[in-house]
Amino acid sequence: MRLAVTGASGKTGWRIVDEARLRGHQVVPILRPNSQLPDGLVADGLPLKRLNLADQNALVAALNGCDALLIATGARPSIDLAGPLKVDALAIRDQITACRRAGVKRVVLVSSLCSGRLFHPLNLFGLILLWKRLGEQWLEASGLSWTIVRPGGLKEAEEQLEREGIRFSGPNQQESSSIPRRLVAQVCLDALELPAAIGRILEITSGEDVPKQTLADWLIENPTSAI
């Protein structure tokens, strides 16, 4: 498939790009005009699409011909408390609109565990979890074929990932724990390739004490989940 990845310069985004290429997909990395490239993305040597997500014409042009969009954009801590509103809600709406215009029907969104929760320490940063949930809701109501992936705390570790089992659940069932970003990227690609993942919110954490299970197997055992 030809896949677009927004937030491609981010710590999770470039790993999604990398995993997609390892699986033989053609990738269109989309990133902000002034984003610095991580070493992992520089090494790929891919042609990059630098644009403002609010620039509809530029975003539609980047998405044209793509089979799916993986959204890995996310607000970063800063003094701008409106950042989460802009990035985790309004920019999601802009990407949904662009997908409709470009004919991209399949979308996987990387969100966060505890999305929508009011009383949470993360909300000290511009009510980020509330804006993430609004972005999710707009995607759910978009008419697109969507999957929302809510990872726990994100880890940079790349070593010994084979020891980690992934704990899958439906929405609002996990509250803590963590997961390496590389495993998040792999789950996003798995979800993209599994029709049973469409219309699902997937919460994921991992640990060496978690039994190994694939997303495909978990979806068979859990065919529906209440939102």
UniProtKB/TrEMBL annotation:
<dbReference type="InterPro" id="IPR036291">
    <property type="entry name" value="NAD(P)-bd_dom_sf"/>
</dbReference>
<dbReference type="Pfam" id="PF13460">
    <property type="entry name" value="NAD_binding_10"/>
</dbReference>
<feature type="domain" description="NAD(P)-binding">
    <location>
        <begin position="7"/>
        <end position="193"/>
    </location>
</feature>
<dbReference type="InterPro" id="IPR016040">
    <property type="entry name" value="NAD(P)-bd_dom"/>
</dbReference>
<protein>
    <submittedName>
        <fullName>NADH-flavin reductase</fullName>
    </submittedName>
</protein>
